[in-house]
Amino acid sequence: MDFSLISTAYAQTQGQPQPSMVEMLILPLGFLFILYFFMIRPQAKKARDHQALLKELKIGDEVITTGGIIGRIKSIADSFVTIEVNGAAIKIIKEHVVSLTKQLATDSNQKKVKSTTPAT
To answer: How many other CB atoms are found less than 10 A from the CB of residue 30?
Structure first.
């Protein structure tokens, strides 16, 4: 058996210097940076916007729930909202209110305006 190749390969790895601690941390820190700016930061902004929406709810607002139910707010409690849908009152958890229908209409109108404007 010829072990000359193994000893040559082993001898070549012995002479190379080890990377420094800074070089070893560059890649994981880069991944954390990308993770923060593309996942964590937008999700936190969305949560802040949702909390602001829940604080600004008032009686008479037309809302959309997570289940897709559209109704008008009849009463607001600490953690519950009663909405009226076709004459029936439904009590839901406040956090399940997704958006106001006015906001939904304005957002879709803005998208239509942006898409119909000719490109220059």
So the answer is: 10
